[in-house]
Design goal:
The protein is mainly α. It has helices at about 5-25, 35-40, 45, 70-75, 80-90, 120-140. Helix content is about 45%, strand content about 0%.
Length: about 140
């Protein structure tokens, strides 16, 4: 049996490498959606998994939560990012005090004060969480 020359082995190696890369790409998990995770962990109990105001805690609330999928429609077709950000971080009206039993201090600037022994900018972490959540809410909008 005759051995393959270096030039003959090169295409075979390229095919094997591409197959290995394809197998690795399929084995890696899909993109993590931080905004969706924030929403499911902080908002879905009242606003529902779909954002329509039908969460399992609705019966416990004094007011029914609004349908979050209609915010852009109610604002002339434009998602009201500034208003949404202010409501989430507590600067705007709509969620009562910061001591809400569901949220607690989840989005206060002290919510991310400690992460092990690693120093970091806690205000930036909280802003990132709020922006990820707002971006997810924007994707829920009925246009």
């Amino acid at each position: 049996m005759r051995s393959l020359s270096c030039l003959q082995r090169l295409p075979m190696a390229a095919v094997l490498a591409s197959c290995a890369g394809l197998a690795f790409a399929q084995a890696t998990p899909s993109r993590i959606d931080l905004g969706q995770i924030e929403y499911q962990n902080q908002c879905a109990v009242c606003h529902g998994r779909d954002g329509k105001g039908n969460g399992p805690y609705v019966e416990l609330l004094r007011r029914s939560p609004p349908d979050l999928t209609l915010m852009a429609r109610r604002n002339g077709g434009v998602f009201p990012l500034s208003q949404v950000y202010e409501v989430i971080d507590g600067a705007g009206a709509g969620h009562g005090g910061r001591e809400m039993p569901i949220w607690g201090r989840a989005y206060s600037m002290q919510a991310a004060d400690y992460y092990g022994d690693m120093p970091y900018d806690s205000a930036a972490v909280v802003r990132g969480r709020i922006l990820a959540l707002a971006e997810y809410l924007n994707r829920l909008q009925q246009r």
